[in-house]
Amino acid sequence: MKVLILTLGFDEKFCYRAILRHGISEGDKIILITAGLVDKVKKAYEWIKSFVERSYNVEVRLMEVNVRDFLKAIRKMTNLLEEFRNYDLIINLSGGMRALLMVTLFALLLKPMKNVRLEIELEDSSGLIEVPQALLLLPEIRSNISDERMEILRLIAQGLGDVKSLAERLKRDESTIRRHISALEELGLVTIEKRKPLKVKATELADLLAR
Question: Does the predicted TM-score (pTM) go above 0.85?
Answer without folding.
Answer: no
